[in-house]
Design goal:
- The structure is a homodimer of 254-residue chains.
- Chain A is 38% helix and 22% strand.
- Chain A is an alpha+beta fold and 254 residues long.
- The first copy, chain A, folds into two domains: 147 residues, Jelly Rolls; 82 residues, Winged helix-like DNA-binding domain superfamily/Winged helix DNA-binding domain (Arc Repressor Mutant, subunit A).
- The first copy, chain A, is globular.
- The two termini of chain A are 30 Å apart.
- Chains A and B meet through strand 5, strand 6 and helix 4 of A and strand 5, strand 6 and helix 4 of B.
- The first copy, chain A, binds a DNA duplex (30 and 30 nucleotides) through helix 7.
- Chains A, B: One of its GO terms (molecular function) is DNA-binding transcription factor activity.
DNA sequence: TTCATGCAATGATTCATATCAAGCGATATC
DNA sequence: GATATCGCTTGATATGAATCATTGCATGAA
């Protein structure tokens, strides 16, 4: 009955939050991701202000650093690596609501607790902000709030697209949409046919993201491969031979 | 292959946007929904400022007033009635991403176009704002922006919950979740067992919201009725006999 | 080397939900 | 007053994806 139970159990539940490494960060101004994320909205003095409340942390692969339902008293800004966001049912079924990487921030919460969990897929670097210390900074810098709003609006659009996928698309269309999304993340809207795209998530992650089982994801990828639409290398690198065909499938016109 | 094609075709595609009625609104201060929506964040002079850019409109049932992909140059604030938001596939499959009623605002868009459509279910009253005229007002009133951000965060949480539903819940769990949601909208978290809740959406709407077919929604409701968990009256009123049982089912513990 | 473990692919079978079909009341149309 | 049409329900059947089962291939440990 529960579709993703197996994948949820097969995956070893990573241990509880232990911050693996922290480094002081007095110099957001020279941060390697300054052009991304919330920081891109700020000038030097504002960054200086932000730096005072930021701590850099490193999260090893597989570690959950936001626990569903935990007190939401921290904000994060991803500076490298890939994070999966998820929601779970009591029996272990899991839905991944998004994969986020450099530039994205995490922790926007309505209530006092996080409505979702977050787990590092590969090694992840984050900027961590205490909420109580970040709030006054946000109040001081309207552009920062503007930036958060636009980020939230973006995520909302992505979420609506994903609802369409989960509610109405076939397995084939879902997998095609996922690959399409990878392609867009890498190259924007310029297709670049034949280029290799590598992705860190496992088949189980993809399944939990697309509302399918591991087997269906695997079979569907094999199918697309057999049809000559894609090539797969080492399991975690794909090359999209015919982006336009894939795009058509993703929209249900395949 | 396309699950909701039938329901999409069965539903007569409502005609294009024609604003049915407009009334000037110089008096947001005495607006009946002042306590709700974006207005609740404002004091009298601020409301006065807002009123200058607002127009009240009335939308008849079935009319689409936001067209997917259309230029996004208006904001709306729902003052009465119920609206369904949706996304569609080229072949007509449709996913309803949410039902919104009094207090909600619509039109937060990332790009220059709306990523979703909006259709009135019953008669809907809206406050309409031209985006170009609203933007400066938002800049002037930080609290307004704060309010928009919190609203967006709320919607994001709801969207994640819905992704979990669409990706991982069974038909029974989906319908139970929907009823649960109706109950919460009406009574917050105090169950009020036995009270009648009326809802305006059709079975087809519910199906398109839950990623099911009309038939499955109907059968599932009948099942819950037969089991004595709910009572249905006139098709659009339900009474939840055992809220806790329903809640358990919705979370997959039924 | 051998063994265990995790991840992916694939085949056989089952099952939940879609599809197809029919009927029923309410409301609207001619 | 006959006849559509719409929204909903229910039954019979089909099917796409889940489930169950096996295998292969890495990688890491003993």
């Amino acid at each position: 009955m529960p579709p993703s139970l197996t994948s949820a159990i097969a995956t070893p539940r990573p241990r509880r939050l232990v911050v693996a490494g922290t480094e002081g960060c007095a110099t957001c101004a020279i941060c390697e991701v300054r052009a991304n994320g919330i920081c891109s909205a700020l000038n030097d003095p504002e960054l200086e202000r932000l730096a005072q409340v930021a701590v850099k942390v490193v999260i090893p692969p597989g570690q959950i650093f936001i626990e569903e339902g935990a007190r939401a008293d921290e904000f994060f800004n991803v500076t490298s690596g890939t994070v999966k966001l998820f929601k779970s049912l009591p029996d272990g079924r899991r839905q991944i609501t998004g994969f986020v990487s450099v530039g994205h921030f995490l922790g926007l919460a309505v209530s006092k607790t996080y409505a979702f969990g977050a787990e590092a897929i590969d090694q992840v670097r984050l900027c961590r902000f205490s909420r109580t210390r970040l709030d006054p900074v946000i109040n001081e810098i309207p552009r920062l709030e503007r930036r958060l709003l636009s980020e939230a609006a973006n995520e909302l659009v992505a979420a609506q697209e994903q609802m369409l996928l989960l509610g109405r698309k076939t397995a084939r269309e879902r997998v095609a949409s996922f690959l399409q999304e990878l392609l867009e993340k890498e190259y924007g809207d310029s297709p670049a046919p034949g280029a290799w795209i590598s992705f860190p998530m496992t088949r189980a992650d993809i399944a939990d993201y697309l509302g399918l089982t591991v087997e269906t994801v695997s079979r569907t990828l094999s199918g697309l491969r057999r049809e000559g639409l894609i090539t797969v290398r080492n399991g975690h690198e794909i090359s999209i031979i015919t982006p336009s065909r894939l795009h058509a499938i993703a929209r249900g016109e395949g």
